[in-house]
Design goal:
single chain, six-stranded antiparallel sheet, three-stranded antiparallel sheet, 9 strands, 41% strand, globular
Length: 133
């Protein structure tokens, strides 16, 4: 059995978002999945993004906030699953007064370097010198 503990997972910090890469593309023998634990502090949000070929599922494990998929925004909370089809714009926000944590699963896998890169920051409209974005 292959196990990666949250405490042992590599961490990517990207504009207030903290991503624990539980299984990056091709790791632990997986060919079809990547899995990330995402934590957004109160008031933080992701800009709209999409992944051309990967479908993605988010499972909220702690807190609540809002999720926007293809222009439909809904409140989400602990235990909710949100499915994002391939090539569909989506964003996540911790706008409920507390940290929001969720697990994100992508298939086919999306490499962490693709998800949390300076190029993605430019496309998303982040100022690379501003860590408060």
């Amino acid at each position: 059995m292959l196990v990666r503990r949250l405490a042992d997972a590599p961490v990517e910090e990207w504009h207030r978002l903290r991503a624990h890469v539980l299984m990056d593309a091709g790791e632990l023998g997986s060919r079809n999945l990547s899995v990330t634990w995402i934590s957004l502090p109160e008031g933080a949000s992701q800009s709209l993004r999409s992944h051309e070929e990967a479908e993605q599922a988010y499972v909220v494990v702690r807190g609540s906030g809002s999720m926007s998929v293809a222009g439909d925004t809904q409140q989400v909370g602990e235990g909710d699953l949100i499915l994002v089809p391939p090539a569909t714009e989506h964003s996540l926000a911790a706008d409920s007064g507390a940290e929001l944590s969720c697990v994100s699963i992508q298939s086919p896998p999306v490499a962490a370097t693709e998800l949390y890169s300076d190029k993605l920051a430019e496309v998303a409209g982040y100022d690379l010198d501003d860590d408060e974005a």
